[in-house]
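Reviewers of the previous submission asked for a worked example of the structure-prediction workflow described in the proposal, so we include one complete record here. The input consisted solely of the amino acid sequence. No template or homolog information was supplied to the procedure at any stage.
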Amino acid sequence: MITAHRPVKLQFIRNIEATSYLESVLWSAVTTVLVIRAFLASTGYPQLGGRGLHIAHMLWGGLLMFAALVLTLAVLGHDSKRVAAIIGGIGFGTFIDELGKFITSDNDYFFQPTIALIYVIFILMFLAFREIEHRRAVSPREALANAAEVLVDGLAGGVSPSRVTQAIYLLEQSGANTGTAEALRQALLSVQRAEESSPSLVTRIRAFVARGYRWLVHTAWFQRVVVALFVINALGLVLIALVVALVAGFGIGTVRLTGLLPVNELSVATTGEMIASLVSSLATFIGVTRLRISRQAAYRWFKRSILLSIFFVQVFLFYQNQLGALLGLGSDLLLLGGLNVMLSQEAALQVTRHAAIASRH
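From that input alone, the workflow returned the following structure tokens.
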């Protein structure tokens, strides 16, 4: 008697730890581009090669990405993925840094829009990674597969107690009540445990900064300062836009735009920055009008203002001047972090108020 088997379907199971891996790829790539640009600028842009040869660092980027691919395919476990993410990110950053050479007919590394295009690519990567992270809740099948992944690490040489706890919690929350789920749970409980590794210097520094940041955002004056910074920034952007429109638009003279490059005409980059800045400022002013009604609503508008600045204003700034744009992006990211904490505080306060009201009835 011949038993018929159904063909195996192509399936993609989401890795619940993908967020940390993808973040490592992104930040490794960003850091690599910044380090390469800083190194080349400080050393006078040396060339590796000679006698008519130039070994572009894009090639090293390709080799690193290939090494990350081999490591991912050839080695099992969490540690290999973590290392591959960092190596792959460094490789991608090394590769994409030479974008200007491959979009110009004369292979111009210094093509002015290059850094703005690289910035846009990183923004798109960030948005894509966020979409992967928030796509949907973990299904029972995904929970089983991810718990089995933790078990593989345990069989290979031990797994940390925190990862075992996370895997068991995942099985319980997913509703996977099959015999396979129970067998996995029992195997995880008996798997070899590795000692929790002591935090690295980078981890300790991040924890110290996080504690200081939490203390800062809970001070009475912090929120007032953040709101004041938003208002001052918005007023400054409006003033700069008006000055540039009057001076450059009517050809009266030359003005230095936001401390960057002298502007004497309304180029596409200048016009784009002005329009994006005005829209960002408008979102800030709407937020100010909402402060008396709802702080949470006001903070949401402030967040929209910052996101508009990060996704649009900074693109045009990177086109005009890399260093000035980096400073602006850094301040935007700090304000965005503060706003996220303030929004979470307001949400917690609302929950507390609703619970207090419900307890009275």
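The CA atoms of residues 50 and 184 lie 59 Å apart. We consider this example representative of the routine output the project will generate in years two and three.
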